[in-house]
């Protein structure tokens, strides 16, 4: 009966978010209260949680989860906003298109999406980068869908797989994975997934020649107002550089040595993201003559952009803590362990099912982590691969209950059927390719 209560609770979450369109944070809290009360019905008096214990568990879960993540998520949003608003993303795209030429313009857009997608949150990246796709389409005469899919595949993969994005960062925390190693392994898995879903898949999309919706076109910044290429790359990729340096130092540092301590400090996500934001403020703002007030205004708007994501992550933390405090996680671990399914496949399947039901990649990933965290700790699977498999599953088969589906449809002026044939298939490819990549890496790690 305990597992039945958990299943009903997950279905209730799906119903509230997907059908009734309730705010995800509110839905998480309602589900936690329901689960705590329902579990008490089927338990002996000595095993029941008191009403105050249920609410305390919710508060503890929110605090534990957000306590280590809020700084990283907020700094990540600030950096992404600076990269976009300063024109650094546009500069990177312009230079890459010059290097690749018209013949390989898809690859230049894919690489642009990958570089700027690391610091740029998905919804923000979509809105800010799609007009660039339309501009390139007008210059080259190539279909917007054909050009757009590679860039959006990159944005989607970085959103689902790679720290410092909110969901992967939260998954790293829940699965007790190493941030730097997760990023390095994520890059290995991400590249083939993006190539398959981007330039390879889009070769079959040249027939979609609809003109983009004029409402969403915008003029790019003048060339004279853009930062230099070196500055743009350094600002966008500094988190990756610092995490990679820290991970490499750890490989060669002696345990307990000052070098190991230094590498741990350099790779601390808070230190990494603070350094990246300060670097962005200076290189993309103050050094180019921007007033402090203007820079701070961009940072403040970035915090507003990410507030909803922070609440969703907090709600997922409450659910995770409820599963732990009610001892349900132990029952789930025993039941799923008896299935003898590879934990990587199990994480992908559960995340994919929730994603298809709810529509939100963030909710799917974080809910899956709450369910499977005990199994990940008990198994011999590398926790970084659990993060990546869960992230890959959370991208599976985007359809009509996902806001990204409708954004793509409206921006690119497609029918619902054509959106399924383009956007939905692209998301499915990156999800399945991510699972395959994780299974291959699991052989060697």
UniProtKB/TrEMBL annotation:
Keywords: Cell membrane, Membrane, Transmembrane, Transmembrane helix, Transport
Protein topology in the membrane: Multi-pass membrane protein
GO molecular-function term, one example from the UniProt record: gluconate transmembrane transporter activity
Assigned GO CC terms: plasma membrane
Transmembrane stretches, start-end: 26-42, 62-84, 104-137, 144-162, 182-205, 226-249, 269-290, 302-324, 344-373, 385-408, 420-444
One of the Pfam families matching this protein, by short name: GntP_permease
Localization of this protein: Cell membrane
Cited InterPro entries: Glcn_transporter
Domain of life (superkingdom): Bacteria
The UniProt record lists the keyword Transport: yes
Main location: membrane
Family, per entry: Belongs to the GntP permease family.
Name of the protein in question: Gluconate transporter
Organism: Chitinophaga tropicalis
Lineage start: Bacteria, Pseudomonadati, Bacteroidota, Chitinophagia, Chitinophagales
């Amino acid at each position: 009966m305990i597992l039945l209560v958990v299943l009903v609770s997950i279905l209730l979450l799906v119903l509230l978010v997907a059908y009734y369109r309730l705010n995800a944070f509110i839905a998480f809290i309602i589900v936690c209260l329901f689960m705590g009360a329902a579990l008490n019905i089927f338990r002996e008096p000595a095993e029941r949680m008191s009403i105050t214990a249920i609410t305390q568990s919710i508060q503890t879960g929110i605090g534990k989860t957000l306590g280590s993540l809020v700084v990283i998520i907020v700094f990540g949003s600030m950096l992404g906003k600076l990269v976009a608003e300063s024109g650094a993303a546009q500069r990177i795209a312009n230079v890459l298109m010059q290097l690749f030429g018209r013949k390989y313009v898809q690859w230049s857009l894919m690489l642009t999406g990958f570089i700027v997608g690391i610091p740029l949150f998905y919804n923000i990246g979509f809105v800010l980068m799609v007009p660039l796709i339309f501009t390139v389409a007008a210059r080259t005469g190539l279909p917007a869908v054909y050009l757009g899919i590679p860039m959006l595949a990159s944005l989607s993969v970085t959103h689902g797989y790679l720290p410092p994005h909110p969901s992967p960062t939260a998954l790293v925390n829940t699965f007790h994975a190493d941030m730097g190693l997760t990023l390095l392994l994520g890059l290995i898995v991400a590249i083939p997934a993006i190539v398959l879903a981007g330039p390879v898949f889009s070769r079959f999309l040249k027939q979609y020649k609809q003109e983009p919706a004029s409402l969403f076109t915008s003029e790019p910044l003048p060339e004279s107002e853009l930062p230099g290429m070196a500055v743009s790359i350094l600002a966008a990729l500094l988190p990756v550089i610092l995490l990679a340096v820290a991970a490499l130092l750890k490989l060669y540092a002696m345990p307990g040595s000052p070098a190991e301590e230094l590498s741990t400090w350099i790779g601390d996500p808070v230190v990494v993201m603070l350094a990246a934001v300060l670097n962005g403020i200076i290189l993309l703002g103050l050094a180019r003559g921007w007033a402090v007030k203007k820079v701070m205004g961009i940072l403040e708007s970035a915090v507003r952009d990410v507030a909803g994501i922070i609440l969703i992550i907090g709600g997922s933390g409450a659910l995770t803590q409820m599963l732990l405090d009610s001892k349900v996680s132990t029952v789930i671990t025993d039941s799923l362990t008896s299935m003898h399914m590879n934990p990587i496949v199990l994480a992908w399947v559960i995340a994919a099912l929730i994603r298809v039901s709810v529509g939100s990649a963030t909710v799917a990933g974080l809910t899956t982590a709450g369910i499977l965290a005990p199994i990940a700790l008990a198994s011999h699977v590398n926790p970084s691969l659990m993060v990546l498999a869960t992230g890959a599953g959370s991208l599976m088969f985007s359809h009509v209950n996902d806001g990204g589906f409708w954004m793509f449809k409206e921006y690119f002026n497609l029918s619902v059927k054509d959106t399924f044939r383009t956007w939905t298939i692209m998301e499915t490819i990156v999800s399945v390719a991510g699972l395959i990549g994780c299974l291959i890496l699991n052989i060697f790690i």
